[in-house]
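User: Fold this; tokens only.

Assistant: Input:
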Amino acid sequence: MIDITTTTRVQNIIKSSSLPTVDGNLIADMIDGLTPVAERWLGRKLQKTAYTQQMDVRRGQSVFQLDAYPVETSPALALRNDLGRDFTGTAIDADNYYLDLERGTITFDKSYLVWGPGVLQAIWTGGMASSTTILVSSSAFEGIVLGADLQIAHVFQRRHEVGATSFAAEGGSIAAARSFGRLCEATIDLWTPYRRVGRRR
């Protein structure tokens, strides 16, 4: 899993607020904690890599959502619909569905699927960036990175409040850094345009 931002970016925001010297190790731990939180909230993976996803198919369902997007065109998406769930047969012909590369949605409009739990398998390459360096320099996802910067700075500023004693600097516990609670409104506003279709606040 790649990180959603860098310690340098967060430190620069905190320093601009005239706060004391920032412990880089603490910020790094907070980034580690926020990254999976962000993926759950967004409903999508950050890292661009190869994925295999097994999905349920409801009776009459025609639209499916991949967990990582944008979707790469090479290698091409491979879909298999198998009631036995061994997925060794020929992939479904791409003429039978429409793949939205930017949104990661698959819409079947020329064929029907066998329905049941876990009977549709997708193998593809997708995600936002292959590394943190690429993610933070991408204009396409700058709102996600800035939202992460502001969220970590927000939590850091509250680290001495009751219940945040685990935010010790050197060698202390970091449990609280991995439990962010409510996202700040600025982060929500920045992340919302990137959120998976159908996800609720």
